[in-house]
Amino acid sequence: MRVAFGRFTFDTETRELLDAGARVHLSPKAFDLLALLLDRRPTVVSKREIHDHVWQDTFVGEANLSVVIAEIRQVLGDDSRQASFVRTVHRVGYAFSGPAQTLAAVRPETRTEERLCWLVRNDHAFPLAAGENVVGRDPRCDVWVEASGVSRRHACVDVGTDKTTIADLESSNGTFVAGERIAEPRILADGDVVELGAATLTFRAWSDERSARTERVVRAPRDG
């Protein structure tokens, strides 16, 4: 889905929100919620449906929804009292109310190779979006890690087209990769162990190129 509204372009294929052509940051939850509202526009989406879609089987309070809505409005420069894009329907839910136009999808040959990355903790995978992903104890972070010794905004993982790096955000207890405390941005490799306070996460990376290499099987010639 590619939708243009105001000076913004929203693209679910590339998971990007562009402001006059420049990419702006939205947390994964905020991106998923905005995608839902745009897809259902101008229908009102109930709070229950939003929770089921964005948080799925995870129990969260209504305050989490308010935080994500506030993030979307801040990025869009929207005013809750005179909403141009996100309209509140009290006691019911939210709706996308501004004029919007569906755009044609980007042709496949214009896309770069897809790079898929995750941080994994206790068998739970946190997908990383292209660009900066803030990791910390604040629920508004892209990767929410609730553990002792983790700062509210602890570290930042930057996913680029050819490499992924991690940097410490002046956290109280530091960021460790492979047991070594980092003082400057460090490139992450698939399988690297990242330690934030008492939390241990594993970085995993995948790409179309790597998948193709893995699928190739070299067979030994048969005798005779």
From TrEMBL:
DNA-binding region, residue intervals: 1-98
Gene3D superfamilies associated with the record: 2.60.200.20, Winged helix-like DNA-binding domain superfamily/Winged helix DNA-binding domain (1.10.10.10)
Coiled coil: none
Family annotation (SMART domains): FHA (SM00240), Trans_reg_C (SM00862)
GO molecular function: DNA binding
Domain FHA span(s) in chain numbering: 133-182
Start and end residues of each OmpR/PhoB-type domain: 1-98
Database matches in CDD domains: FHA, trans_reg_C
Keywords from the UniProt entry: DNA-binding
Any single GO BP term: phosphorelay signal transduction system
Protein name per its UniProtKB record: Transcriptional regulator HilA
Species the sequence originates in: Luteitalea pratensis
